[in-house]
Each structure stands twice: as structure tokens, then as C-alpha cells.
Amino acid sequence: MDRTFDQVFRGSAFTSRSPQEVSVLEDCLFCLDEKGLIRRILKPQDHDYETVLATYSGTEKFRELADGQYFLPGFIDLHIHAPQWAQAGTAMDIPLHDWLNTYTFPLESKFSDLDFARKVYQDLVTTLLANGTTTALYFATVHKEASYLLAQICADKGQRGLVGKVVMDDKEENPAYYRDESTEAALSETEDFIQLVQELNKTTKQGVYPVVTPRFIPSCTDEALAGLGELAKKYGTHIQSHCSESDWEHNYVHERMHKSDTFALHEMGLLQDKAIMAHAVFLSDEDADLFAETGTAIAHCPISNVCFSNGVLPAARFTRKGIDIGLGTDISGGFSPSLFDNIRQAVISSRMLEEGVDPSLAAPERGLPQSRISANEAFYYATAGGGQSLSLPIGRLEENYIWDVQVIDVNATNAKLPLFDEGISMENLLHKILFLSRPENIREVWVQGECVHKRT
Ligand code: GUN
Ligand code: FE
């Protein structure tokens, strides 16, 4: 028989069917083409399952999971500051504005040094892959060269990277030691960067993409914001920024622009289907409707929000409104590189929003009803929701989606999950994986059909 497929994987998998529902694909054959795309998924009851199994089994194109191993879609980190990996776990003691000026701008300014940048970025991309993150939407720094280096490191290590050279051109709001030289320079460097990364993408199997990246409205002049909107349109790129993150930031924009972040960004041409805005905690109903209408996604960063946001994202409500939501680590506002940790925090924070947190209030006044999200929803955000937000065929294990997966081993040495009920439902098994897995349980990670991480 001819061998139509480039690779065939056999095993059981979990994938989102909708924000609330998970599909369990038991003992399936995942048949890939040479581009790493899932061409067919065969279930044991399908008529050609046995033939395909007999054809590929025992060949170098075949890979079969052992007992206790499961495929999960690779995670999509929808918001992460690559340079801030160097300070992850520290500097969580002061509010956003002070944090930027005291810790973060001094750190990011060091990425003019390419040797330093290489050290940090190589370590970060390796760490993210080992944590199951197959795609990441990165903020780099204002430096074009170091930002391009991050894209090259993603390309080399096999991660799908979407990378932005950060724009911060406002001379009032940014320190002289760390900002774009001028508005013109910010725009021309961004354009050069877009062209360089689009060229690199041509030789990168899993894809690397340039992203138009105004840091946030307070960092940028109106002229830069509008110019970036035009560049995104000209080159068809993704766009990312921060939006209505904290009281200070949200109020700053109201004072300067006399409107919300959302409406200001929209006027600058920065809201569209491939736009992803971090946080969006303080959206009004009109703002939220504009997100839904324009197809703009929210990168929900629940760990970071605890330190910087002065509130909890009403994720359940925004999902009901039809807004695309994915999950971000927001390193280093969030300390953890793991989307498992962020899934857990998303669930926890939503429960605290629903119940309320001030015990001196009577129960009916304490919280915001219907705010909880389930583990299934948090899983959706980390996978299918992220893919939908980026408009890429990733985050689901379905035909015509890309084979980006993590292999979870519930029996990993020193990290065995507490499974004592042989009759456990597959959905409960997924929840154990989501709440209890550690990096030790992530045995292998694959991006676009290539193995990019293996735990020995
Ligand atoms: N707003 C502008 N820059 C940043 C940043 O680096 N982190 C967070 N959390 N918010 C920001
Ligand atoms: Fe951020």
C-alpha cells in the first residue's frame, strides 16, 4: 500500500469543542502530511483504521503513546515580555507605573547588548517549550536587532513566534535612556523589522511573524499610533498592545484622549481581527461590543492581574459576548512561564470575582454573579481560544489544524498524578492533568510535526 501520510501518531487526546465542552479522542490515529498538518483523524470504528494502522505500525513514520500518556494541544501564550524573563519572580512590590520606571525600563534597556539578549532569549524559548508552549506572542524591546534575534531564536528552536519590536516614542512619558529616537525612527524601524521577519518566515517551517507593537497608549504619540495602524494594514500583520489594564492606565488615557483605550485604539486603526490586547480588565459595555465587532482578542493574564490590574477580568461575561480570549503569562508582571499555572489562576480569580473577597460585606453584595469559568473554559483559552485570537489553524486537534502537541505522562517519575479510581471519567482525568501537572509530566512537545522538546 502507498504511504500517503508523512507521519502517523496513535494515542488518546483532549481538545476543545467549544469554550465549555471538551472532546475526548480515544485511541485515534492522527495522520499528518509533510507540512505538519493533520490531514485525517481516524477513530477505531472507522473502516480504514486497521489498514492505516497495519501500514504504518513498525515503520519510522509511526509513533504510539504508552499507557498513561495523552496528547494535549500545545499551549498558546498570547502575551509575554521576553526581556522580562530576566526579572521573573521578583519586582512585584509596586504598582504598574512605578514598576515600569523602577525595574522594567532599566532592564529592557540592557537588550541593546545582543550577547545579553541571546542568553536571556535562548533560555526563555527553551523554558517555554518545556512548559508546553508551542506558540508565543512576544513583546521584545525597542531595539530592532535584539527583537529580530528573538525571532531567529524561535525559528531555530522550532517555536512558532510572533514577535514585536516595541514602540515607545513619547519623550514626556519614556526615559531618555530607553525610547525610540523619534516618531519617524520608531515607524521606519518597525517597517524594517516587519520586512526582515517576513523574509525569515519564508524559510521557517512553523512560521515566525512580525507584530506591530505600540507598548500602550501612554508610551506613544498619536502620530506613532496612527502610523503603526497604517503599517499593520500595509503589511497585513498582527497587532498587540496593552488596553485598560489598571486604574492608573485606564484613567490616563481618558484624560489625554477623552475616550477609552478601546475607542482611541480603534481610531488609530489598531483594532481588527489579528489584534490582541492584553488585559482589557476595565472595558465598558461599549468597549466590549467594539472588541466583538472588530474581532479584537483579549490576552487574559490572570497572574499578572493580581499585581497590576486592580481588578479581575470578567472573562465569563466577555466570552458570552463573543469576544475571543486567550491566556497570557505576561512575564514578568506574571511570575510563571507556565500556562498550566495561568489556567489555574484564571479559574481561581474567576471564583473570587463571583464570590467577592470582602468578608465584611453581606454575601449578596460581595461578588459578581455568573463570573466563574470552568476548567474546560480555561483550557479553551490556553489552546483553541488562543488560536482563534491569532487567526491561525492551531490550538485544536482537528483535521486541517497544525500538529502542535504536548505529550502528558500521568505516570512520570517523581511526578505521578494521584489517580486511584480506575473508573475516572476522561473529563476528570483532564482536570487532574490541568490542575496537577508539572513540567516533569510534559514528556514531549511537537510543533508543526517536529519534536522540539523531549524529557529523558
Ligand atoms: N503596560 C505597559 N508595559 C507593560 C508591561 O511591561 N507589563 C504590564 N503588565 N503592563 C504594561
Ligand atoms: Fe504586558
Report on this structure.
It is built from 15 helices and 17 strands. The strands form two sheets. Strands 6, 7, 8, 9, 10, 11, 12, 13 and 14 form a nine-stranded parallel sheet that branches. Strands 1, 2, 3, 4, 5, 15, 16 and 17 form an eight-stranded mixed sheet that branches. α3 packs parallel to α4, α4 packs parallel to α5 and α5 runs parallel beside α6. The radius of gyration is 22 Å and the shape is globular. The relative contact order is 0.15. Bound molecules: guanine and fe (iii) ion. The site of guanine (GUN) has 12 residues, from α2 and α10.
Estimate the helix proportion, in percent.
25-40%
Taking the sheet with the most strands, its summary is: 9 strands, parallel
Bound ligands, each once: guanine, fe (iii) ion
- Report mean pLDDT, rounded to a whole number: 97
N→C terminal distance: 35 Å
What is the total tally of β strands? 17
